[in-house]
Design goal:
- This protein is an alpha+beta fold.
- It is 54% helix and 16% strand.
- The strands form two sheets. The protein has a seven-stranded antiparallel sheet, with helices on one face. A five-stranded mixed sheet has the order 5-4-6-7-10, with no helix packed on it.
- Helix 8 packs parallel to helix 10.
- It is globular, with a radius of gyration of 27 Å.
Length: 351
């Protein structure tokens, strides 16, 4: 028995237990064949003595991941482990879990089953290790294919340039128009990254005064100009790439409207990896980052208040949540503050 919330059985076929919420079955790793029956809606996994499910896997971190039931369903959250959690062909920090899904912690592959499954499903033999490995490899390869969809575009673009591509014709046209209308052409050339060409255009009184005004307003108009220029830029991506990027954008937008800004940010970033010209993904990525910063600020403020009123457990939970949000930005002063506060609170709690 591991605490009162989790019970370990050294076999895969275990009948339904009273008060059972879910179970994890080890299908690969040092604990192969073990079944952990969970009787609460939140539990932790790792190789340390303080977690609910203790694995004998040396590649698992002491406190590796948390699995909990929320209004979104079952969620797995990485707790800052060294090797991460492998799920659906990639290493992820947070993901939704359905009954029958499997994921990898260290060298251990775990199968998740919800208690509402029938006794037949709960007692079913575990998946073959070879089948799981084939599934993971297929998902990983699919992930690589998605990320590399845009690579052939470079070759297509090169061939187009050899045949006087439309982009080259646009640049030549802008250069010619620049000598006739320098004030109107200069901003377009600069936005297309052709500032060197713009420097050769003749100076006019209007352009000189315009440069001074522009220098004072660059900060305010930067985002608007980027969006405007992106809409004017010629598309150099195939329909297949655009469709894939749109799918990632749609997923990100759904998460954004639901207030899940971290997952929205990841989806928008993936859309931009596939198609760097995706203006909507860039626009909502900027807003997701802003909303995420605001959410972190509110969490930390709530943690400070809970700490001030002596609500230690709540403060610890809030600081841990903030640290997970800031995990990839450890130089951030807020991360340093949360880490120090969490260390002090845990010390007080242990006394």
């Amino acid at each position: 028995m591991i605490r009162d919330k989790v019970f370990r059985f050294n076999k895969a076929e275990v009948p339904r237990q009273a008060g059972e919420f879910a179970r994890l079955r080890v299908v690969k790793g040092p604990d192969l064949g073990a079944t952990f029956v969970v009787k609460e809606s939140s539990f932790t996994v790792g190789r340390g003595e303080t977690v609910d499910i203790i694995l004998a896997d040396p590649k698992a971190s002491r406190s590796h991941a948390r699995i909990e039931f929320t209004h979104e369903g079952w969620l797995v959250s990485d707790l800052g482990s060294a090797n991460g959690v492998f799920f659906s062909g990639e290493f992820v920090r947070k993901f939704k879990l359905k009954s029958g899904d499997h994921f990898t912690i260290g060298d251990s592959v775990l199968e998740f089953l919800m208690s509402r499954e029938s006794d037949r499903a709960l007692m079913a033999p575990v998946k073959e290790n070879q089948d799981i490995e084939r599934l993971d490899v297929a998902l990983a390869q699919q992930k690589v294919r998605v990320k590399n969809i845009s690579k052939p575009v470079a070759g297509v673009q090169k061939k187009k340039q050899e045949k006087r591509s439309p982009l080259l014709l646009v640049v030549i046209g802008l250069g010619v128009a620049g000598y006739l209308y320098p004030d109107e052409a200069r901003p377009l050339l600069e936005d297309f990254g052709l500032g060197m060409v713009a420097d050769f255009l003749p100076e006019t009184p209007k352009s000189k005064s315009g440069k001074a005004k522009k220098a004072g307003k660059d900060g305010e108009k930067k985002d608007a100009e980027v969006r405007e220029v992106a809409s004017l830029a010629p598309s150099e991506v195939s329909r297949e790439v655009e469709k894939t990027a749109d799918q990632h954008f749609a997923l990100g937008f759904r998460e954004y409207t639901a207030g899940n800004y971290v997952r929205a940010k990841e989806a928008f970033e993936l859309a931009l990896q596939v198609n760097p010209h995706h203006g909507r993904a860039r626009y909502y990525l900027m807003h997701s980052e802003h909303e995420n910063r605001e959410e972190i600020r509110k969490i930390i403020e709530s943690a400070r208040i809970a700490r001030e009123f002596g609500r230690t457990r709540k403060a610890i939970g809030l600081y841990e949540t903030a640290i997970r949000h800031l995990y990839f930005d450890r130089e951030n002063p807020l991360y340093i503050e949360c880490e120090a506060a969490l260390k002090e609170l845990k010390k007080v709690e242990s006394q």
